[in-house]
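== Sequence, structure tokens ==
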Amino acid sequence: MWAAIRGSWSLFVGMIFLMVSNGLLTTLLTLRGNSLGFSDSAIGLMQSGYPVGSLLGCLIAPRLIMRVGHIRIFAALASIASAAALMHLVTQDVWSWGAMRLLTGFCFSGLYIVAESWLNGTASNKNRGSLLSVYFVIQTGGIALGQLLLNFSNPEGVVLFVVVSILVSFSLVPMLVSDDAMPPYEPPGRITLSELFRLSPMGLAGSFLNGISQTILYVALALYGSSLGLSKGAIGGLIGCMTLGGMLFQFPLGKLSDLMDRRLFIAGIPALSIPICIMLATLENPADKLSLLYLLVTLLGGLTLPVYSICMAHMNDHLDRSQVVAASGTLVLILAAGMTLGPTLGGFAIENFGPEGMFYLLSLIALMTAMTALFRLWNRPAINENRVNAVAVSSALTPEATALYSKASDRED
């Protein structure tokens, strides 16, 4: 693994800066919007601009890379994202902030595409699994680290927005000073939605629903903390614990899912999250029980974030190897489509049903996921051939990384 890290050090250093800045900005905007008097629904609508932009970036950025190359696109998108972070200080209305979130989502998606296509070009059969594991830890760990910076200054000031801008700008430096040649770019193919549904309806439905749950947690959890009157550090701690819980649970749950019908896991893991959601929704005076709150949120993240990885592995179990890359690329877009709904639904739930509303909403989505998996268990026999290894992936993955994922997840012949 260390050899793989040394060979791609510039990429990983740049990605650390990007992920820390992205994690910080997402929570910062929720807290700042709350202090400006934005309603919870308005904040959710504003934050939904990011996954919409990300979805557009997955579709458009590859064409731009083919026209002008990796380095120029990376520099241009990082510059725009850096400026967009500062633009939130110029305006104070939901619509302009939503436009900036859409622009930021587009830019970050393009930046991830450049990084992942580079990673694909440098990977070998010996280090694909290690590279993907390191990339996953950087993605999830970076978001968690970004929450710690909330203690650096008051969200109502300008310092944290400047820090985000600086971090995005710093991500350029390792990429530009590296003497490694960028690999040739080949955009991945994709399978149509109808064909993907025919091949793996459970993978499609599970990924879509999990996309909703993930963005509810990343956005509405900060609204929940604000409604309880928690400090900015405690709110950052909530999101950090949720993210770290997902990272800690990813690997053991993925390994266990390799040993049995994955639909049992896709049904069982969300089902286990339902009592956690109910406990959080009914917890009395949660602000006075931070240790218990952190523990429950860690468990909730651990039982929510890994579901997408298992859905992708389940889908790949049903495919020929020639179909895996294209199908995985389409599944990433399905996840992104689900993520566009999460912030708006989460903000609406909190505004209309109180802080506990987001946990009831999450329990409803978990129930829908579990029922879908149980229906598929009853309706279709288990597939034992063509089994792959479940590999940890995060919601920040773009279609460009799916070639790396598919080769790292293949079982040895």
Q: What stands out?
A: Residues 283 and 289 are 9 Å apart (CA to CA).
